[in-house]
Amino acid sequence: MFRVLEQADLPSRIADLVLRAIGDGLLRPGERVTEARLAEQMGTSRAPVREALRLLESQGLIVSHPRRGFFVKSYNADELLEIYDLRECLELHNAQAVIAKMTDDDFKRLEAQVELLKQLGAEGRTQEQVVEDYAFHRMLCEVGGNSRILKLFDQIATELRSGIALVGRIYDNPVEIAKTHDPIIEALRARDVIRLRDELHEHLQDATTHVVEIYRQWPASPAEDLPGYPLSPIQQQKAR
After folding, report:
1. Could you name the CATH architecture of 77-215?
2. Helix, strand, coil % (nearest 5) of the chain?
3. Half-sphere exposure of 7 (CA within 13 A, CB side)
4. Angle at 142 between CA 136 and CA 144, to 5 degrees
5. Percent of the chain at pLDDT above 90?
6. How far is CA 3 from CA 22, 44, 127, 128, in A?
7. What's this model's pTM, rounded to 2 decimal places?
8. Cys bridge to 84: 25, 79, 193, 208, which one at CB 3.0-4.6 A?
9. pLDDT digits (tens, 9 = 90+) for 67-76
10. Does domain 1-73 have CATH number 1.10.1040.10?
11. How far out from the chain centre does Cα 42 lie?
12. Per-residue pLDDT tens for 168-218?
């Protein structure tokens, strides 16, 4: 799962890799994160691994339990709903700055990203599509130019992606989902901030409804730790 690291700035680099593993679903909500195993895989001692996990704990992505160790933070559906609500607040607030600061090159980059989403959807590469979907919305935060908003978005995106990775595929038609970004692009093309906020609101509300409703169907902790619970689609695939 992890590669051997150089010695420079190990804790933050380890934290970045663990963060990516959480977002990609390699470390699932509720799953134990073992210091010894990470240290062995990364070719380092346990001390920087422990420091990295403490850093992620301070960000709310890892929790620790006395005598049990570290675990990936798990969320129930109501908590996930709160995270989506915060995400919408950030993106709608950011809309004004996007319209004010967006250059022609920025718009072309955003437009190209939506075309990539359509291509991935058409090819059935849904996991990659999820990653690039968040990349599109991150681009909007980058264009807005507020580093604090961008930092918060990155944390929120990791939490939401970990939930999506747990339940597996969330949409039956990934091509149509990619097309739901078209109204956002048109609002950007018109440089209409009110229209952009309206389109973002509708887009994010739809995503919230789909993800949260499906998330309610599955336990927040790994199925192997909860006897009697059914495996989610992504867990079934890994078990084969």
Report:
1. Up-down Bundle (1.20)
2. 70, 5, 25
3. 1
4. 110
5. 49
6. 16, 11, 22, 21
7. 0.72
8. 208
9. 889 998 877 8
10. no
11. 23
12. 555 668 888 899 999 999 999 999 999 999 999 999 998 888 888 877 776
